[in-house]
Amino acid sequence: MTVTGPKGFRAAGVAAGIKPTGALDLALVVNDGPDQAAAGVFTRNVIKAAPVLWSQEVLRHRRLRAVVLNSGGANAATGPGGFQDTHATAEQVAKVLDTGAIEVAVCSTGLIGERLPMPAVLSGVDTAAGALAATPEAGLAAATAIMTTDSKPKQTFKTHADGWGIGGMAKGAGMLAPNLATMLSVVTTDASLEPDALDAALRAATRVTFDRLDVDGGTSTNDTVLLLASGASGVSPALDDFTELLTAVCLDLVYQLRADSEGATKDVDIVVRGAASEQDAINVGRTVAEDNLVKTALFGSDPNWGRIAMALGRAQAEIDPESLSITINGVTLFANGTTAADRSAADLSGRTIEIVIDLGVGVSTATIYSTDLSHGYVEENSAYSS
């Protein structure tokens, strides 16, 4: 189950005609309460899509009745007209749900720079409203409707022993190097929490999950993660317990996003230890994750620690070559400033690769989730606009 797993939520996914293929392309997620508390995190890209600007504004009130999402067009870099389109979409959702547009978030994904076909969007909202259901099938349809280059929908649902749960859906296969958010994700819970607590939990969870996914260095104009709480379970969990389960839900979605990222043949964990600060650890992990020479070596199953050393050596971090070690899939290949083992001892033939970098200058750690760089990634991103 997905966003419809927690009590108090309905969803729908329909073919509105935004995509010329006739595929599902518009999703609606509705919170039936009794609570409508909400929180969100968004891209740090200064070129923000109209739906991001709209949703940031409505979330100032920390309350959402619904989220409408479309694929087939990002509505980014579309000027005042694009913002008016987003407003009109929210107004249409508000009309069919008998609520206010200020309680409707909007998300879009697809090609940057083109206006959406608004007749299709608005009629799609009506169709989606008529298809709303609190079933796994409805949740799956919603998760499918937000896909672009994704090959499969991403969804999850986890429960707590105290009788509440958290569900989620996400999309994203390229342009994955989130700064605070992911491509698009809606997370729902039937726990009862105050908006400030929701916001704190979401920021804590995304900081170590979505914000640590780095496939290609591209921060989208549309990155959005929304968290909606219905309170329908009647349970008010401790903030630490809620944050722990929310983090697990977000990490599950991160693993699914990474596994389905464009052209990926390797799932790569870059674990940085012994850093002088957490930010140093993050900087080192991101630098290695985004280095094309490292990524192509991993595609070739080549444990080329020299490329890793080269990449991390230019990171904005405190680094002492004599204290540094690099371990790949359990084999330490570099330590104390020189070769520690024959690189052939590290087996990279499988899908999973763990690179452990111990800087040896402190106690801080961070893990970056990444992939290799394959022929498939180049072919997919050069074959057509996305």
Task: Tell me the β content.
Answer: 15-25%
Strand order of the largest sheet: 13-12-11-14-10-15
User: Which whole number gives the mean pLDDT?
Assistant: 95
The global form is: globular
Largest sheet report: 6 strands, mixed
Describe the protein in words:
- There is one protein chain.
- By secondary structure, this protein is an alpha+beta fold.
- It has helices spanning 50-58, 79-97, 118-131, 136-145, 195-207, 239-259, 278-289, 292-299, 305-312, 375-383; strands spanning 9-14, 26-31, 37-42, 66-71, 104-109, 154-159, 165-171, 184-189, 224-229, 267-275, 325-328, 331-335, 338-339, 352-358, 364-371.
- Strands 13-12-11-14-10-15 form a six-stranded mixed β-sheet.
- Helix 1 crosses helix 2 (79-97), helix 2 runs parallel beside helix 3 and helix 5 (195-207) crosses helix 6 (239-259).
- The chain is globular, with a radius of gyration of 21 Å.
Write a short abstract of this structure.
The protein is an alpha+beta fold and 386 residues long. It has 10 helices and 15 strands. The protein has helices at residues 50-58, 79-97, 118-131, 136-145, 195-207, 239-259, 278-289, 292-299, 305-312, 375-383, and strands spanning 9-14, 26-31, 37-42, 66-71, 104-109, 154-159, 165-171, 184-189, 224-229, 267-275, 325-328, 331-335, 338-339, 352-358, 364-371.
